[in-house]
C-alpha cells in the first residue's frame, strides 16, 4: 500500500520539483506566457477532449459537476464564517480559501490515483472551480460591480460545448478531437512545471497567520469534500476524486489576481506557498484516505 501511494504522489513531487529547480537555477521561464497558454488553449482543449471522449460517464460527470458546485458553496459558507471570526477582509482572503488548486496539483493526482476515470471526474471538478475562480474569484479581488469580464476566457465555453456533446452522444469531427487532444496534452505538464516555478518565486510573510489560513483551507476542503461525497452517495473513484480535489491547496490564480488588484499580494503569495507545502506534506495521507 505504501509503495502504491508513493507511485501516485512521486510524479507530482518530481514534476513540480523540476519546475522549482529550473527557476532556482535562474533559467528563463515566462510565467505569464505559460499561464495564458494553459488557461486559453491547454486547459480548454483538455476539458473538451476529455468530456467528449467519455460519453459513457455522462451521468457520473454530471453528478461531479453538481457536487463541485455544492462543495464551493460549502467552502464559501465556512470560509466566510472563519474569516469573520478572525476579522480578516473577505475581499482579500475569501477566494484563496474557497478555490483549490484543482488543476496544477489536483488533476495529476486524480489521474495517477484512479486512471482515466479519475482524470475525467477530476476535470469535471476542475471545470467548475476554474470557471468560478476566473469569474467570481476575479470579482472578489477586483471589487468590480459584476464578474462578466472574466467570461471572456474560453474555459466556460469549452465546458458547455463538451457537456452538450457528451450528453447528446454527438461526435465532433475527428480532426477536431485529435487537435484538441494534442493541444490539451500540454496542460498537465505545464501546470506542474508552472506550479514549481511559482513556488520558487514566492516568499513568506506573516507565517503564523498564513499557516493558520493554509490549515483552514486543507481542513475545510477535506471536511466539505468528505461530507459532499457522503451526501451524494459517492463511492470508489468519485468519492476519492471529490476528497482529493476539495483538499488541494490555494490556487495560484489567487496570487495573480491579488497582484493585479493590489490585495495584499505578498501575503496571498505566502498563503499559496505555505498551503502548497502543507499539501505536498499531506499527499500520502490524502491519497490513502481517498482510496480507502
Order of helices and strands: HHHHHHHHHHHH
Number of domains: 1
Structural class, from secondary structure content?
A: mainly alpha
Low-confidence segments: none
**Major sheet:** none
Beta-strand portion reads under 5%
- Tell me the span between the first and last alpha carbons: 11 Å
| CATH fold annotation | Na+/H+ antiporter like fold
- Overall CATH architecture: Up-down Bundle
The pLDDT mean sits at 88
Q: Helical content, roughly?
A: over 70%
CATH class: Mainly Alpha
Number of continuous helical runs = 12
Count of beta strands = 0
Please supply descriptive tags for the structure shown above.
Na+/H+ antiporter like fold, mainly alpha, 0% strand, 292 residues
Amino acid at each position: 500500500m505504501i509503495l502504491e501511494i508513493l507511485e501516485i504522489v512521486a510524479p507530482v513531487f518530481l514534476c513540480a520539483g523540476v519546475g522549482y529547480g529550473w527557476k532556482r537555477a535562474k533559467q528563463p521561464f515566462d510565467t505569464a506566457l505559460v499561464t495564458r497558454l494553459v488557461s486559453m488553449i491547454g486547459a480548454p482543449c483538455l476539458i473538451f477532449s476529455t468530456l467528449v471522449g467519455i460519453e459513457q460517464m455522462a451521468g457520473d460527470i454530471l453528478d461531479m459537476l453538481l457536487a463541485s458546485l455544492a462543495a464551493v458553496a460549502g467552502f464559501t459558507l465556512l470560509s466566510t464564517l472563519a474569516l469573520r471570526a478572525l476579522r480578516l477582509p473577505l475581499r482579500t482572503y475569501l477566494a484563496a480559501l474557497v478555490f483549490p488548486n484543482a488543476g496544477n496539483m489536483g488533476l495529476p493526482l486524480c489521474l495517477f490515483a484512479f486512471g482515466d476515470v479519475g482524470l475525467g471526474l477530476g476535470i469535471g471538478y476542475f471545470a467548475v472551480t476554474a470557471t468560478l475562480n476566473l469569474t467570481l474569484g476575479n470579482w472578489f479581488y477586483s471589487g468590480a460591480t459584476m464578474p462578466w469580464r472574466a467570461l471572456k476566457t474560453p474555459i466556460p465555453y469549452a465546458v458547455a460545448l463538451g457537456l452538450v456533446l457528451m450528453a447528446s452522444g454527438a461526435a465532433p469531427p475527428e480532426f477536431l478531437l485529435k487537435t484538441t487532444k494534442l493541444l490539451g496534452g500540454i496542460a498537465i505538464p505545464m501546470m506542474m512545471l508552472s506550479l514549481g516555478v511559482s513556488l520558487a518565486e514566492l516568499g513568506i510573510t506573516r507565517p503564523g497567520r498564513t499557516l493558520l489560513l493554509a490549515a483552514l483551507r486543507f481542513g475545510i476542503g477535506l471536511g466539505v469534500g468528505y461530507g459532499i461525497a457522503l451526501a451524494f452517495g459517492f463511492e470508489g473513484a468519485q468519492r476519492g476524486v471529490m476528497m482529493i480535489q476539495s483538499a488541494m491547496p490555494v490556487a495560484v490564480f489567487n496570487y495573480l489576481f491579488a497582484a493585479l488588484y493590489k490585495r495584499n499580494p505578498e501575503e496571498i503569495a505566502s498563503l499559496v506557498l505555505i498551503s502548497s507545502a502543507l499539501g505536498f506534506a499531506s499527499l500520502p495521507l490524502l491519497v490513502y484516505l481517498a482510496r480507502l
